[in-house]
Amino acid sequence: MTMRSLLSDNSRYIESFHVFLKNSTEHQCMLEFIQKTLPGIISSIGDGKSPLNVLSIGGGSGEIDLQILKQIRATYPAAAIHNEVIEPNGEQIRCYQEHVAKTSGLENITFTWHQETSLEYESRMKSSKEMKKLNFIHMIQMLYYVKDVPATIGFFHSLLEPGAKILIMILSVPPSQTLRDN
Length: 182
Ligand SMILES: C[S@@+](CC[C@H](N)C(=O)[O-])C[C@H]1O[C@@H](n2cnc3c(N)ncnc32)[C@H](O)[C@@H]1O
Prior knowledge:
By secondary structure, the chain is of the alpha/beta class. It is built from nine helices and five strands, in the order H-H-H-H-E-H-E-H-E-H-E-H-E-H. The chain has a single domain (3-178), classed as Vaccinia Virus protein VP39 (Rossmann fold, 3-Layer(aba) Sandwich), CATH 3.40.50.150. It has helices at residues 3-8, 10-22, 26-36, 38-41, 63-75, 90-102, 118-128, 149-157, 175-178; strands at residues 52-57, 81-86, 109-114, 134-140, 160-169. The radius of gyration is 16 Å and the shape is globular. S-adenosylmethionine binds next to helix 5. Keywords: Methyltransferase, S-adenosyl-L-methionine, Transferase.
């Protein structure tokens, strides 16, 4: 799927993505990773800090993001968390906001959504000269849509505070090959 079709035909993209999720073990694997492995990864990010600044790049409709936030919340129950989301697809942002409204256990977590691509965010940050420092950044299943992957990772890596982590998840085979035969 090209970037153009991804962004210009929202409903078709979202429908296709949900069919993919239903027919793959992708989300199940990610949830297992979030429950079992993520706690070890995020054990360095807090260190008495509050708020913890989290950046989700290509957060989609937020299901995975909310699971990640619950783990951060469980690891750092006393810290306030600010979760910023970069997501170019407006429909996905609306779904994300609905998920947040319906989900309990998100007390003391604030959300900001930016309808833009990672490159637009990068340009905006560079021109505002307000380079944020972040405690945890994640890019889950979104690097496929970025033109210059090393430059993108390099920019976001430069926003990490000491002890902070960046989490990248991508499939090792194209999504079409991970679909189960029906
Ligand atoms: C496959 S979905 C993954 C959504 C979510 N992270 C998950 O795992 O459920 C990819 C997301 O990246 C977003 N996206 C596409 N191009 C992007 C870009 N250049 N910068 C940021 N996000 C992008 C899409 O709109 C979509 O919501």
